[in-house]
Write a structure and sequence with these properties.
56% strand; mainly beta; 6-stranded antiparallel sheet; 1 helix; single chain
Amino acid sequence: MKQQSEVFVDGSNTPWEDLGGGIRRKMLGYDKSLMMTYIKKNAVGYVHKHIHTQVTYVEKGSFEVQIGGAKRILRSGDCYFIPPNIEHGVVALEDSTLVDVFAPMREDFLKKK
């Protein structure tokens, strides 16, 4: 498992990973302490939790976002923050994209490659 991305990441040459159910992901810059991914969704992101701190930018479209017991509709230009071990999930309300940042790196994402 590679522990660090290249210094410059050419997004147009970075392959999409099909996660099934209408979700695709690109791995962008990362090292052990931080990771950025690009997500295209036209689906439901199941409610889950993990040990990572996460901040997500809604690049395009709209999502119903659940964090803990709260739900809210977020649109292009909005952002959400998730502390570690808090249940969360999203439902894409249209063809939409997210930019996720995790600290520390999601090693489980790299193991799937």
